[in-house]
Specification:
Blueprint (H helix, E strand, L loop, with lengths): L8 E5 L11 H9 L4 E8 L5 E3 L20 H4 L20 H8 L4 E6 L9 H11 L6 E5 L2 H10 L4 E5 L7 H4 L10 E3 L7 H9 L3 E4 L5 H10 L3 E4 L2 H9 L4
Parallel strand pairs: 1-2, 1-9, 2-4, 4-5, 5-6, 6-7, 7-8, 8-9
Antiparallel strand pairs: 2-3
Helix pairs in contact: 4-5, 8-9
The structure holds SN-glycerol-3-phosphate (G3P) and magnesium ion.
SN-glycerol-3-phosphate binds next to strand 2.
Length: 251
């Protein structure tokens, strides 16, 4: 769990998604084997309010299903293949439940749960995800993040010990959240796109006792730049590559 390295923690974006189907148990397992310090995953509710780990609100891109996730029950979703498009080696890989991810990986490394209720911003997603995290006793190693800042407020109200990260859209669209306006959400960490990160932003967050976790950093130059700024975590599709690059740094 402790990061033995001086450089930023490496968090596998949707698991080791460069080498395995995103947001699946094999991608999370690979991240663990590639000695990532944690994983980032996306979660939303099914029709029957189960916590499904998936990025898009629709099924087409990552599974053999069709339509909206929220129009399907878990019984329907668990029959889908979230791996076939990644080649034969991953055929018949199911969409995981957050419960299964916690069961298999809870406490082994950090888990960044992105709450993806962007089409239904007032749904029960934060409440249900928090209850599950507490049931697994994982408040210490889970950080919730979202572009929907209401989730962060709701979580903190329900559980002051919860860790939260405020996701910021890239560029101008995320400027308010990166600045003074974002502070009202009392996040523990800011999660900006790496192209918006500067030495000043890192320093001002650290002065305020906040962390900065940046996404999605895959290129060698960008990895080196983020490590040079001293960010706390780098969210990357390829933790193995990031580790190789950062291991060569003398920091
Ligand atoms: O949490 C960082 C990143 O995952 C946010 O964007 O679209 O990849 O979920 P997205
Ligand atoms: Mg995400």
């Amino acid at each position: 769990m402790n990061n033995p390295h001086k450089y930023p923690k490496i968090i596998a974006h949707r698991g080791a998604s460069a080498h395995a189907p995103e947001n699946t148990l094999p991608a999370f397992q690979l991240a663990l084997e590639q000695s990532a310090d944690g994983i980032e995953l996306d979660v939303m509710l099914s029709k029957d309010n189960r916590l499904i780990v998936i990025h898009d609100s629709t099924l087409e891109r990552t599974t053999n299903g069709k339509g909206n996730v929220l129009d399907h029950s878990y019984a329907e979703l668990k029959e889908l293949d979230a791996g076939y498009h990644f080649g034969d080696a991953f055929k018949n890989t199911p969409l995981p439940l957050l419960d299964e991810v916690y069961e298999q990986f809870g406490g082994k490394f950090k888990i960044n749960v992105e709450l993806k209720n962007y089409h239904r911003p007032y749904d029960q997603l934060p409440d249900i995800a928090l209850a599950l995290t507490k049931k697994h006793n994982l408040l210490d190693t889970v950080i919730f993040s979202s572009f929907n800042a209401r989730n962060l407020i709701k979580l903190r109200k329900a559980e002051p010990k919860v860790q939260t990260g405020l996701l910021c859209l890239p560029g101008f669209a995320g400027a308010l959240y990166r600045g003074g306006f974002g502070r009202r959400y009392r996040y523990d960490a800011l999660h900006p796109h790496h192209s918006d990160v500067s030495q000043n932003l890192v320093q001002s967050l650290h002065k305020r006792g906040k962390q900065i976790n940046v996404w999605t950093v895959n290129k060698t130059d960008d990895l080196l730049k983020m490590a040079g700024f001293g960010v706390d975590s780098i969210i990357t599709d390829d933790p193995e590559h990031a580790r190789k690059v950062l291991d060569n740094l003398n920091i």
